[in-house]
Amino acid sequence: MKAKRNVTIKLKSRFLLIIASLFIVLLAAEFSGILHSITLTHAETTFNVVFDFDAGSPPPSLYQNTPFDYLTSNAVAAHFSSPSDIIAPAFSIQNMVPLGYNMSMFSGQWLYDNQITRDYLDVEFNAYLYSVDLTFAVVEPHGGPGTIPSYINLTAYMDSIGNQIGWTWARGETASEQNTQGILSFTSIDPFNLIRIWIPSNQPPFNPTDFYVDNIIVNATFPPDTSPPVTTINLTGTLGNQGWYKSDVTISLSATDDLSGVNRTEYSYDNITWTAYSTSFTITAEGTKTIYYRSTDFAGNVEQIKTGTVKIDKTVPTGSIVINGGAAVTNSSSVTLTLTSNDAISGVFEVRYSNDGVWDTEQWEPPSTTRAWNLTPGNGTRSVYYQIKDNASLVSVTYQDSIVVETTSIAGDVNRDGRVDIYDAILLSNAFNSNLGDPNWNANADLNSDGTVDIFDAIILSVNFGKSSP
Fold first, then answer.
1. 3 state DSSP class of 31
2. Chain-centroid distance, C-alpha 17
3. What is the predicted pLDDT for the residue at 175?
4. Which helix (H) or strand (E) holds 185?
5. Which pick of 127, 277, 286, 430 has the fewest CB atoms within 10 Å?
């Protein structure tokens, strides 16, 4: 009975072991599938980019100091900085190899810790990273056979220093020159977007403080991006009134995207045919034109179509003026003006009038087809001048019309302004004692028409002084 019980227990144990083994196999297969799925997704969405300090947008210039921004052709951007930059720029772009230094792994330009202090190099990316490799050189003298080179550290963070994802370190290869070179690599299953590179202290016998960095290679993917880019339009030209331009208008578009970056910007005149935007373009045709525009980011998000209105008027308005219906003569200085004003593009805005054609104090006013007007006082030919301004603030040429004024005069009205006053007395005094043919002769001052301006003319003026024509 005891032997049978032992057999039963052994069979149950084997059965449980088989079940457990199957469960482990299935679990392993499931985990493998999940891991494979993650790996495939990672492989499909990530790509490698290189920051070599020789090309990019903008290309880093020689001796350029941190902080600075660096954009690759894949739209992965990096911001290079150091906490020590607050005091003085800690790192700069170099291409000089100091005498006796080993730089065989470096080419073109590289980044160098040019301060005597031990500085951190922070590099912040606009993408998620899964791995980073970089070439480094630690500045230290060769210590001879058996001397262990100093090491350099890299710590990875997400979003900010303190939110650590992981870290690594590496030593350079022992060489006969004055520094050791190597490759520093870090890989993580968790994404990161900020790295810090530095040389730890207390590394006898040399305790180096300076290092070089070149060829930073990152395996990156952009964060999930569901927001479209934002595009703005800018119009450049000679602006008039009411949003109208008096010249050709240059259109420029600019777009921003906080995550994956702007892939392309387009514009259209009809919302049907779209043109890729690369540089500013100019509108020359007069009238009103609508510009449609939009941008698409690298994640495929398309911005909602926006519109901008361009209004151009380069043609001055036209018009006409007629005094008293075209009459040649009037016996009054009060007249009626008949007016026209035309502008086929932006429309007429205001008009103004003048008796002398000098546009200094004349006020603009709304247009009308007729207007009561007072001519310059006195007899003779009198003119009225007229200008038109459209909504683009373009001003017409000066239009004018003239009429002869013949009013009943009063004895003593030397200047023919319809009244006898001090101005007439001055004119008479200027011509006093003159005869016909003299330089100061004034026929209007010879009030009794005897060919001489004398006391008798002065008496006539004084009798009527202060009176006006009927």
1. helix
2. 72
3. 54
4. strand 179-198
5. 430
Measured in residues, the chain has a length of: 470
**Maximal C-alpha separation, the chain:** 174
Q: What percent of the chain has pLDDT over 70?
A: 86
d(CA 159, CA 220): 15
Cα gap 292→464, rounded to integer Å: 77
pLDDT at 44 over 90: no
Q: Which residues pair with 297 in a beta bridge?
A: 262
- For 67, 155, 164, 196, the CA distances from 160, given in Å and listed in that order, are 17, 11, 8, 11
Angle (CA) 389-394-400 rounded to 5° is 50
**31: Cβ–Cβ under 8 A, 6 or more apart, which residues?**
none
Q: What is the mean pLDDT of residues 221-236?
A: 88
Q: Count CB atoms within 10 A of the CB of residue 9.
A: 10
Please choose, from the candidates 469, 466, 468, 445, the residue with its C-alpha nearest in 3D space to the C-alpha of residue 457: 445
Query: DSSP state, 254?
Result: E
Q: Per the omega criterion (within 30 degrees of 0), is the bond before 89 cis?
A: no
User: What are the two backbone dihedrals, phi and then psi, of residue 231, each rounded to the nearest 5 degrees?
Assistant: -110, 140
In 3D space, the residue among 313, 295, 312 whose CA is nearest the CA of residue 304 turns out to be 295
